[in-house]
Design a protein that fits this description.
single chain; 85 residues
């Protein structure tokens, strides 16, 4: 994979995401920019969701889940610390 590659796919497509890239869901309501490993969010990344008041999480991921140090924000609310979700 080329670093900085952009992944824009429909969920039904069979694509293996690996390396650094951007994924935007088919409805453009969620985007993830960051590290991928074996088709899962893993490493450091930023998840932006336009639903639920514009949720943003920036930090660590492991096995497709938020993990380790990160910042979660929604509107005026902000939490920075260690997350294991």
């Amino acid at each position: 994979m080329v670093k900085g590659m952009i992944f824009i796919v429909k969920v039904v497509n069979c694509v293996i995401r690996h390396g650094v890239g951007t994924f935007v869901d088919r409805d453009a309501k969620m985007a993830y920019i960051g590290d991928w490993e074996g088709n899962k969010r893993s490493g450091v990344g930023k998840l932006i969701s336009l639903e639920d008041g514009g949720v943003i999480y920036e930090g660590g991921y492991k096995n497709n889940k938020k993990h380790g140090k990160g910042t979660y924000s929604r509107g005026n609310e902000k939490y920075t610390g260690t997350l294991n979700m």
